[in-house]
Amino acid sequence: MLLFLKAQMSSLVATMVDFFMTIVMVEVFKQHYISAGMVGAVAGAVTNFSINRQWTFNSKKESIQTQTMRYTLIWIGSLILNISGLYFLTHFLNVKYIISKVVTSIIVGVSFNYFFQKKYVFSVK
How many CB atoms within 10 Å of residue 59? Predict the structure, then answer.
C-alpha cells in the first residue's frame, strides 16, 4: 500500500508539471490543446521517471538505459491513451480541455501507468 501511495504522490507531482506546461502552451503561447498536451506529457514523463526511479521504487540497481527504454515504451502507450481521451472528451463531448485532461489522466494513471511501471519498468516483485 505504501508503494502505491508513493507512486500516486510521484504521479501528482508529474501531473502538476504536465498540466502547468499544457496550460502555459495553450493560454500563453496559443498552441492547440493536443500539441500542448504532448508537450506537457513529455515534461511530466521526465519528472515521473526521475522521481519513480530515485524515490518511489528505489530502483537504481538496473541500468538507467534499460529502465529508460522500458519507460519510453510504456509512456508511448500512456501518451496515446491520454491524447485520445483528451481529444475525444474535448472534441466530441465539448468538455473544456483541462477537464478532459484531468479525467483522462486519472483513468490512465491508475489503470495503466502504475501497473506497468511497477511490473515492467522498475520490476518491483
Answer: 17
- For 71-81, the pLDDT digits (tens) are 999 999 999 99
Residue 30 zone, left/alpha/beta (φ > 0; ψ -120 to 50; rest): left
* Cell (9 digits) for 73: 515504451
What is the pTM (predicted TM-score) of this model? 0.91
What phi and psi, each to the nearest 5 degrees, are found at residue 5? -65, -40
Calculate the alpha carbon distances from 94 to 98, 102, 108, 121 in Å.
11, 14, 20, 35
Helix (H) or strand (E) holding 75: helix 64-87
**DSSP structural state of residue 93:** T
Q: Where are the beta strands (DSSP E) in the chain?
A: none
Q: Are 41 and 82 in contact (CB under 8 A)?
A: yes
